[in-house]
Specification:
mainly alpha; elongated; about 0% strand; single chain
């Protein structure tokens, strides 16, 4: 005997509107699609659209508000022992949002590249993520002389590293391991800025590579140069 099932659960209206909008953007183009077209496709009135989205641009990026809220909550709960690591982990929240639906993310990236207004909107969204990370870092570096500057620079570095890897993945059509690419890029940020809460040093002196400065004649044979280098490094 088959088990009785109730009616299928309806998708949230925000999701319905975003899906209808994106379908039309892909079919007709962003500029050629009106809000009236979107609500007609979704089967609702104009008031419903503006209840969820202030503009057509917002409908292209329906998931960024919740992602920003998740990032803010994550940083609010971070213990502060490793501020650089915390903002790198916060950036991975954005990556997971894109990687959850690669096909949609790639299509949205291509649409964004075609519409100048969407590129401008996307930059404003990226800037909100960066301000959130910088705000967290300013709190962690409050006692440092250059704390505010350090916070801004590290936040910008994290965003630049994350976006470089993410966009390379999107340009490839979603091929490859996006998480590994972003991890590598963020690793460069951590290597450069370290993880100390005070930010007083980029790296401890004992971790820095030794530098050897040597002067030799231009006429010196190569074997002599190598000998001098080995001697300076204590490799006699």
């Amino acid at each position: 005997m088959s088990e009785a099932r109730g009616p299928a659960k309806k998708a949230p209206m925000r999701e319905v509107l975003a899906k209808a909008a994106f379908q039309l953007f892909m079919e007709r183009g962003f500029e050629q699609t009106t809000v009236d077209d979107i609500v007609a496709r979704a089967g609702v009135g104009r008031r419903s659209f503006f209840r969820y989205f202030p503009s057509k641009e917002d409908a292209v990026f329906p998931d960024h508000e919740s992602c920003l809220a998740d990032m803010t909550a994550f940083l609010d709960a971070a213990d502060g022992d490793d501020p650089v690591g915390a903002v790198c982990d916060a950036a991975r929240i954005v990556l997971r949002m894109y990687a959850t639906n690669p096909e949609f993310s790639v299509q949205r990236y291509r649409l964004t590249q075609e519409v100048p207004g969407l590129r401008t909107y996307e930059l404003s969204v990226v800037r909100r993520y960066e301000r959130t990370m910088a705000g967290y870092l300013r709190g962690r570096y409050a006692d440092a002389e250059d704390g505010s500057l350090r916070a801004e620079v590290i936040a910008a570095s994290v965003v630049a590293a994350h976006n470089n890897a993410l966009r390379s993945w999107l340009r490839s059509g979603g091929d490859g391991d996006a998480e590994a690419a972003v991890d590598h890029a963020l690793g460069l940020v951590r290597d450069g800025w370290g993880s100390g809460a005070t930010g007083s040093e980029v790296a401890p002196p004992e971790a820095a590579d030794e530098v050897v400065v040597m002067v030799v004649s231009k006429r010196a044979p190569m074997w002599r140069v190598v000998q001098r280098v080995e001697s300076a490094l204590g490799q006699d």
